[in-house]
Amino acid sequence: MPPPPPHRPTSTSTPSGKGELAELKTQLRQLAGSRAPGVEDLKRELYKKVISYMTIGIDVSPLFSEMVMCSATSDVVLKKMCYLYVGNYARVHPDLALLTINFLQKDCQDEYPMIRGLALRSLCSLRVQNLVEYLVGPLRSGLKDTHGIKDFSEWAQCLVLEMVAKYVPEDPNETFDIMNLLEDRLQHANSAVVLATIKVFLNLTMSMADVHQQVYERIKAPLMTLVSSGSPEQSYAVLCHLHLLVMRAPVLFSSDYKHFYCRYSDPSYIKKLKLEMLTAVANENNTYEIVTELSEYAANVDVAIARESIRAVGKIALQQYDVNAIVDRLLQFLEMEKDYVTAETLVLVKDLLRKYPQWSQDCIAVVGNVSSKHVQEPKAKAALLWMLGEYALEMPDAPYVLEGFVESWAEEESPEVRLELLTAVAKCFFRRAPETQKILGAALAAALSDAHQDVHDRGLLYYRLLQHGVETAERVINPPKQAVSVFADTQSSEIKDRIFDEFNTLAVVYQQPSYMFLDKEHRGAFEFSDDTSTNASVTESSETMLASQSVDANDNDLLLSASEKEDTRGNLVSNGSSSYVAPSNSLIDGLGSFTVPPAASSLPTASFAIDDLLGLSLSTNSPESTLAQPSLVLNAKPALNPGAFQQKWRQLPVASTEDYGLSSQAAANLTGPQPLLKHMQTHLIHCIASGGQAPNFKFFFFAQKSNASTGLGYFLVECIINVTARKCTVNYKTDESDLLESFAAVFKSAILNFGV
């Protein structure tokens, strides 16, 4: 016979069989209704034993009923262990999970907030489909629970506030209730909580102009407090958001300009932001104090800050505030005899003279004393050359200074300087021909042999103009000029609005919309459409051309302020079966967060009913049909690429601006750009670009008159929609002004029928 198995002692943490489980069940039943002293401690011991068994994989689900019965206690530790047990076995035994509903719902109404929260979390963690209906009531009560929006950790508060920022209130009263509830979060010590709260306030009041302005006033103090406390890195992050608000509403911060003075201990990145804010808030009441402060920074040991301070003084001067004193300050900078100070000042003096020609006598008298040998930077050289050509009569040495530049033509590396030199010599020739004729000949000869194409072409143009006559050349090269009223902003309002939409994100810190620094797959709400199913006939070579395009991450120009390079930057991709031209990747990336809609060629050919947009008969069965034909019929397949759209948008003035109200159904359906794009395409109105996120969207549409000549008959539309206010603002541009009213009626009808 085989030897008997060796005896192994039973572990105290492992049940020896059904007998021990039965014993645990009996003990739990005995303790379920007991109120004797020490019973809670006994329950804890039993609960710990059950949880330990469950943890090592032993099935203790037969104890489910007894564990639920023992949950009637105020001991938080027991509650937690019971919730852990229930959550573990509810998924495996959904029939048993029903037993937990009553006690969990009861705990959701417990007087202690921690138990209420634990019970609600456990109830939502059951994950049993037929129990979902029991979650609605506790969830609604939990959302109305006034205890806890303050006891959350900072991270949890930020998550909650981020969700609240996306909420659209039903009426103004609800807006004020939310703001009053979150008012004390503006005083929180954590900057992330404060910024998240500010985002909520700004989003909620976007359509309430008066209240929105009051929000700015309310949030100033918390932001300035955070800027002056904490580490430089934290201060910079907060200051970036304050900088964004100052740029949007500088008047509201004009009385707080002293808060933006640079401190000696400020890092250079903080000083730079403060200088920009000082420039923005300058007005007739504080200009003298601000310029005085900025002038002190011009002598800063940090060259970059010194340059920025000089530029700031110049920008304030261009805002027409106390120009007299500012011009004197700028001219004093030229006496500092520092190359970088002289360079920045010359550039600003040139801009001042373009806007205030009446100051030429004072400025030229000082600029004439500047030695050209001390001007080494290309932009400064170009500015000095412009003044030498423009004010050749007021500067006695102008021809001789220009002669020195022409003699060193081959040594000049910058094409910008060579172009400006050629123009300056020509202007000087028109005013002082005897002294400049020989210099002009040398400059033209150098330009015609220049390897740079632009310099060569300008030299050839000037040479041929002079062949036609000096008077003809002067009318082209040096026509009468008007003073410049407004200088172009380096960053378009489109980008600023898009950054504001991404408040409390890295977009504010980087001062760029997220699409400029995020990979395509991580752009979230600001992403591009990759749907190729609607345009499957694009040739392989065209796809290769698109793939070869690269994104210029430093290109801040958008639709309304694109540089001339945009006109030729986009490669055209033609659909083999249509005249519609698809936009290139590089141009679309230049448009920022806009989404490329499906190609117009992918739409079905317009039916008779769609073509008859004005409700007039288009029948050709009778001679009278020509009389009944509408004045406007839209082309079903218009050909317009984004580059051409941009060029036309810049060239054409706004012909009309209209405001339309949206129906509640339309506002509800506009959860993203795509529904409206598809709707408008059925009306032969195509979207070239779209962007934004609820509640604010922006679209650029275009349409073309049927049978129009190439490049003509276009209607361009900028459509700005606020879902909360249910308002649509439309700007029309067209080269068919006589048909604008008809097209506006078509567009209005399409918009008003959206969602119906």
TrEMBL record:
SUPFAM superfamilies linked to this entry: ARM repeat (SSF48371)
Gene Ontology BP terms: intracellular protein transport; vesicle-mediated transport
The keyword Thylakoid is assigned to this record: no
Stretches assigned to the Beta-adaptin appendage C-terminal subdomain domain: 632-752
Alphabetized UniProt keyword annotations: Membrane, Protein transport, Transport
Highest taxon of source: Eukaryota
InterPro entries for this protein: AP_beta, AP_complex_bsu_1_2_4, ARM-like, ARM-type_fold, B-adaptin_app_sub_C, Clathrin/coatomer_adapt-like_N, TBP_dom_sf
GO molecular function: clathrin binding
Subunit relationships: Adaptor protein complexes are heterotetramers composed of two large adaptins (beta-type subunit and alpha-type or delta-type or epsilon-type or gamma-type subunit), a medium adaptin (mu-type subunit) and a small adaptin (sigma-type subunit).
Job description of the protein: Subunit of clathrin-associated adaptor protein complex that plays a role in protein sorting in the late-Golgi/trans-Golgi network (TGN) and/or endosomes. The AP complexes mediate both the recruitment of clathrin to membranes and the recognition of sorting signals within the cytosolic tails of transmembrane cargo molecules.
PANTHER family on file: ADAPTOR COMPLEX SUBUNIT BETA FAMILY MEMBER (PTHR11134)
Protein name in UniProt: Beta-adaptin-like protein
Organism: Ceratopteris richardii
